Amino acid sequence: MSHKGGCHCGRVAFEVDADIATAIECNCSICSKKGHLLAFVPASNVVLRTPESALSTYTFNTHRIRHQFCPVCGIAPFGRGTDREGNETFAVNVRCLEGVDLRSLEIQSFDGRSL
Hints:
Helix content: under 10%
Shape: globular
Number of strands: 10
Number of domains: 1
CATH class: Mainly Beta
CATH topology: Metal Binding Protein, Guanine Nucleotide Exchange Factor, Chain A
Order of helices and strands: EEEHEEEEEEE
Radius of gyration: 13 Å
Largest sheet: 5 strands, antiparallel
């Protein structure tokens, strides 16, 4: 299923092809402060409608995840990194997707704080 997503002001836009039935709620320092609910998808399932140059990027700790956000409204619709096999992956903030009923999702907790 294809979902449109983006930031609050509309400057960042993307589409993701994924059946989203679950989301991960991570308790790491950034996810807990921002309230992210994440769905991990292969990068090949995401189409950016905004040039990468229009995004701001924040990294911390190991710098393995590129947390990308809108420089105008500050909303962070996704992060980018690699999975355990080295495949490029997007961590999509499902709160930034149109038409996803958050109440219908199975929320899985992840202890990112202890890593």
